[in-house]
Amino acid sequence: MATNNTAITQADLEAPLAYEAEVYRKGLKFERPPFTFQTTDWEPQAKEVLSASAWGYVYGSAGQRETHNKNLAAFKKWGIIPNRLVDANYPDLSTTLFGEKFQSPIAIAPVGVQKIFNPEGEIATATAASKEGVLYIMSSASSTSIEDVAKANGEGPRWYQLYWPSNEDNDITISILERAKKAGFTVLVVTLDTYMLGWRPSDMNNGYNPFLRPDSIGVEIGFTDPVFQRKFKLKHGKDIKEDLGTAAAEWARTIFPGRSHGWDNLKFLRENWSGPIVLKGIQTITDAQRAVAAGMDGIVVSNHGGRQQDGGPSSLEQLPKIARAVGDKISILFDSGVRCGADIAKALALGASMVLVGRPYVYGLSLGGEEGVRHVLKSLAGELSCTLHLAGIPGAGRDILNEDCLVREV
Ligand SMILES: Cc1cc2nc3c(=O)[nH]c(=O)nc-3n(C[C@H](O)[C@H](O)[C@H](O)COP(=O)(O)O)c2cc1C
Ligand SMILES: O=C(O)C(=O)c1ccccc1
């Protein structure tokens, strides 16, 4: 399997479709994945195995779920045009970002507190991503430390997502950035839409905030951070382990300070991070242009899967406008509402160079740990490859897969 920047081999091109071929070749002897190939069934099946609180947390969205529902519906407004008598055998799914070649255009979206879905949590996901040649984006709210995730991810490509503390905690931010750099995270993804949690009725009904549980899950990065540890001791006169509840609440306040930074503050991150910086949560042309003006390297067109602000537009609807405005000046990634291989093809066609998947792999993690995440990633890559092949589109590159490949149906 190709890792970053190694040449893509014929075997790499064939790998996504090998999953399907194996099922049919082996028939009933095929060792079944832990759950279905039908992507629409992942969500209801995960519901059956999760506690009400964990389920409410992952499936839950802001407000009346209007933004969430629009995210899903937006994909159905586009059709992929099928072309005949074109040889698009084993389409090349590779994509290049910041001078690095990635074997797959699919990435693991940053998702916090993964141990509430499976005791292996981020270790299972980071291992699965590495085995499938998929980019792992690590959340600031992980229930596993930066160093342990890096170990599990091994040679796999990995980026670090920052929940950005306020200026009073710049020393903590610097410490975290240094740790991420040292642990081999190459790109910084700064999430802009979550300086406070959205209005989430399901979590409020369950009285559920993963940080504030008695076993304080999701605070691992803070609890293992020497600067956070020192500051906590100075302020409270005791060590973290002497008062886990207070420390967890303190870490939650640190990474969700309740107020947004301004565009000017990005200079601070630029000064303290030597690699590319990507802003996650962009939804307008104006903000995308501001990102370009601020010298950023990439944006993730995302509305956080509809979990933050309700009543907004679907993320996919915003993508082509933004791509047309700034696509030649900045790298564009996308998430929110991706549920199957055809969805990935559509997001790529509408201007994304990389597509992040959120809830689907969390359902895989819930249903089958590392194998479950691998099954989700293999299914999505396999279906994407199959879709492009049958549509006569030989690759995922912008020169081949673009708006001309789609028809707007409604
Ligand atoms: C359970 C859960 C936790 C998440 N935690 C984070 C996080 O820690 N940092 C972040 O930037 N985004 C977080 N997200 C948002 C995802 O990165 C992504 O934007 C979103 O899930 C995409 O929408 P989708 O679930 O429809 O694919 C989280 C999403 C879910 C479902
Ligand atoms: O739930 C989220 O969307 C999110 O970003 C998060 C992750 C961990 C803890 C709190 C919020």
From TrEMBL:
Domain FMN hydroxy acid dehydrogenase, chain residue ranges per copy: 31-409
Needed cofactors: FMN
Record SUPFAM superfamilies: FMN-linked oxidoreductases
Residues annotated as the enzyme's active site: H304
Entries under PANTHER family matching the protein: FMN-DEPENDENT ALPHA-HYDROXY ACID DEHYDROGENASE PB1A11.03 (PTHR10578:SF143), S -2-HYDROXY-ACID OXIDASE-RELATED (PTHR10578)
InterPro entries for the chain: Aldolase_TIM (IPR013785), Alpha-hydoxy_acid_DH_FMN (IPR012133), FMN-dep_DH (IPR000262), FMN_HAD (IPR037396), FMN_hydac_DH_AS (IPR008259), LMO_FMN (IPR037350)
UniProt record similarity statement: Belongs to the FMN-dependent alpha-hydroxy acid dehydrogenase family.
Keywords from the UniProt entry: Flavoprotein, FMN, Oxidoreductase
Protein name according to UniProt: L-lactate dehydrogenase (Cytochrome)
Binding-site residues for glyoxylate, renumbered to this chain: Y57, Y163, R200, H304, R307
Any Pfam family: FMN_dh
Chain residues that bind FMN: 110-112, 139, 161, 191, 280, 302, 335-339, 358-359
GO molecular function, one term: FMN binding
Residue spans crossing the bilayer: none
